[in-house]
Amino acid sequence: MEKIVILDGYVANSGDLSWDALKEFGELTVYDRTAPDEVLERAKEASVIYTNKVVITDEIMEAIPKLKFIGVLATGYNNVDVEAARRRGIAVCNVPAYSTESVAQVVFAHLLNIVNAIADYAASVNNGEWSENRDFSYRLRPFAELSGLTMGIIGMGNIGRRVAEIARAFGMKVITNSRRELPEGVRRVELEDLFRESDVISLNSALTPATKNIINREALAIMKPTAILINTSRGPLVDEDALAEALREGKIAAAGIDVLCEEPPRSGSPLIGCERCFISPHIAWQSSQARERLINISCDNLKAFCEGTPQNLV
């Protein structure tokens, strides 16, 4: 039987779901959060550890001699020294494609909030402005229908493809710079043309050296002044100073942001408090259904490993 330690389980499961399926494989200890200086003490006897954002370095692996499996409670695994794990024969398994529906939904939650100003109207009504109005209806500002607008998608993986499908259901035209095989109704363009043509840009790309700061001053200068930027992917895809400047100067219309370069933003961010920038705290992945899939796949990863047929190895 394995000794299994979950180092930071709270964000994935705050108590509304269950880790019990892991108990089939051994003694399970779950910590809500683990500080860097607590990792070794808590995991020193473990053969299996799960981490969401706790960093697992080569030095930590060296100090946990029984360790043979690292489960990442996420799709991204940059918090684990994967090369060191390979050298040591430690399997590292992530959870791909569990949050596709959840993230795609939040893309359009941000977009519809920006376009239709529902939150602003709700606040206006609560402030008595409808009760005191002379007419049965009023406008805080004009809004446009999504139908006929162009959605540019950067990153055409599972989430990007689902965003494209939903955009087309709204009657939007969809373009991408992706070199992958494209779904029906999606047109491939060069990146500069995507910036130039899009009414809405959705970032759904992994963070790589090529995509870091893909939204920068040069890109923002090309965009339409009416353009809306949505980022539910990774904070560093966006140069935050450049975006804040573009919003202040009216170079683009608005931004819906679910991810920042620093999370939580203890050092602050130029986007916080920026007019026409709507920020949610990295929630796009965490519908109840997505978190349940995350836990189930994480358990399946360990089961497959124990049976000698590992899956989702990174």
Give the gist of this structure.
It contains 10 helices and 12 strands.
Major sheet:
7 strands, parallel
Decide which structural class fits the backbone. Answer: alpha/beta
* Share of residues in strands: 15-25%
- State the helix count: 10
Please trace the helix and strand order, writing H or E for each element. EEHEHEHEHHEHEEHEHEHEEH
Q: Widest sheet: strand order?
A: 8-7-6-9-10-11-12
What is the radius of gyration?
22 Å
The coarse silhouette is elongated
Which oligomeric form is depicted? single chain
- The residue ranges in which pLDDT falls below 50 over 5 or more consecutive positions are none
Rounded to the nearest angstrom, the distance between the terminal CA atoms is 24 Å
Number of strands: 12
Mean model confidence by pLDDT: 97
- The residue fraction in helices comes out at 25-40%
Q: How is the secondary structure organized here?
A:
Blueprint: E1 2-6, E2 26-30, H1 39-43, E3 48-51, H2 58-62, E4 69-72, H3 82-87, E5 91-93, H4 100-116, H5 118-126, E6 150-154, H6 158-169, E7 173-176, E8 186-188, H7 191-197, E9 200-203, H8 217-222, E10 228-231, H9 240-248, E11 254-257, E12 277-279, H10 288-306
Parallel strand pairs: 1-2, 1-3, 3-4, 4-5, 6-7, 6-9, 7-8, 9-10, 10-11, 11-12
